[in-house]
Amino acid sequence: MAVKIHGFIEGTQSEELMKLLLTLASNWGDVFDTSKLKVVHLSGAMTNVVYRITWPKNGSENEERTVLVRVYGEGSDIFFDREEEIRTFESISSHGHGPRLLGQFAEGRVEEFIHAKTLSAGDLRDPEISALIAAKMREFHNLNMPGSKNALLWPRMRKWVIEASSLCSPEQAKEFQLEILENEIDALEKELSQSDQNVAFCHNDLQYGNIMIEDETKTITLIDYEYASYNPVAYDLANHFCEMAANYHTDTPHVLDYNVYPDLEERRRFVQAYLSSTGQ
């Protein structure tokens, strides 16, 4: 089974993935012929490499079976707990949201393929699409997920600063002002943590590449839950507004253009759609 899938994944990973795909195909009653696998690299993922894999369905030449394979990016585990992400993925799926988890291998997983279009940066500014995103976000926030219900925002940022400090030289730590960052996190937590704050299960990464839409039904699906956790609802909304200032398909994807940050009317319209989506 040491078959390479068109050279995109090799060695032990390839063997594990091929065994997993063979098991899935057998469970579905498909004839799994590796020579007929089609592999397409999908752009847009930030921390992983994602592929669409298809093969003939039930031996048919006219129908195809399609799955999504996600290969984890090197070093991405620094930012989140991969085991916790998988538990979150499965729990969200059990609530009827997002794709189903079909299987795992050492460096990635196989997911149900969602037949929908990934949004572009410009789509976030479309009033109709924006209202649909707001309603879906409200649904997401209403999920009752297992585990701690405490906001993860502050300890997560402190952990990232510690990780950055361990990877930086003293000169780099000074250049990036990591010591000041620690103080800023403390000040922000003190200023922004209120007793009446609404904490709910948040996506925490609602950039356009993590939002899909089915054109005919106008159904929104949120994907990629690597950063999902309980957090202040206001943080998830504010983060989504910041994502409107991002374009990850440029030479400087990490630089946000706050000249295109949503104005007061756009933000008001989004929040109104969010609040009114449950009939209130």
Can you offer a commentary on this structure?
The protein has 280 residues and is of the alpha+beta class. The protein has 2 domains: 11-113, 2-Layer Sandwich (Phosphorylase Kinase, domain 1), CATH 3.30.200.20; 118-151 and 193-276, Aminoglycoside phosphotransferase (APH), C-terminal lobe (Aminoglycoside 3'-phosphotransferase, Chain: A, domain 2). The chain is 38% helix and 18% strand. The protein is built from 8 helices and 10 strands. The strands form 3 sheets. It has a 5-stranded antiparallel β-sheet, sandwiched between helices. Strands 6-8-9 form a 3-stranded antiparallel β-sheet, with helices on one face. Strands 7-10 form a two-stranded antiparallel sheet. Helix 3 crosses helix 8 and helix 4 (153-167) runs antiparallel to helix 6. The chain is globular. 20% of the residues are buried. The mean pLDDT is 89.
Topology:
Layout: H1 11-28, E1 38-42, E2 48-56, E3 64-72, H2 82-94, E4 101-105, E5 108-112, E6 117-118, H3 127-141, H4 153-167, H5 170-175, H6 178-192, E7 199-202, E8 211-214, E9 219-222, E10 229-232, H7 233-243, H8 264-276
Antiparallel strand pairs: 1-2, 2-3, 3-5, 4-5, 6-8, 7-10, 8-9
Helix pairs in contact: 3-8, 4-6
